[in-house]
Specification:
This protein is mainly β and 236 residues long. The chain has one helix and 20 strands. The protein is 3% helix and 48% strand.
Length: 236
Amino acid sequence: MTERVIIDGGPYAEPLIHRTHRMATGTSTARHDEAHDELLYVMDGAAVVHVSSLAGDDSFDVAAGDAVQVQAGERVSFEVAAGELHLLSFLVPAPTTPWAAQIARPVDRIVHVARLGEQQSESATADRQFEVLFDRHRGSRGATMFVGFIPTSGAPEHYHLYDEICVIVRGSGFLHALGRAQPIGPGSAFHVAPRLLHAIENPNAEDIWILGVFRPEGSAAAAFYPDGRPAPSNED
């Protein structure tokens, strides 16, 4: 399995980190991380994922659109029967350091695999919809992972109070931030710091699918306009 660090956290303390993994046919070496929970998204390919924890060993079939949660200390490996597996990885600091411990949410159960399309879609700003893959209700104590669906035109300029990394899964358009409009397409990744004004423009007929991981764990619909007013969802 080859690894590439896309967003390394830079000068931030206890940062989110985004990596990509690619793996050809075979079985990867089991690995574990004591310092981070890991949220993974299958961008392409198929595999069997093996997760070992104190509760026992589990194996799951995963394919494009599925997500995997591995908590700190759990061991994970992937078995690819054919083709190439392409994973997006997000490292979330485990609640062993001061800030991560302060914002950690209590969880009732741990779900290791979520499949896109199996959860109910929810409403956000400007006719956007989103589907949560992992949050505290599915065992993610430090972050929320979701896929947002942005139709033609996109969201107005807004900000969040949470810290977020986004990756474009499908579609193309523009990211507006810091006075610039930057083209984005599948695989484009960017970091949205708390209170950074930004907007996603979609000039195309096809929806943009955007994968987001943010912390603290919470609602992906929690957004604010530049004047501080809460941005309503399209159901408000």
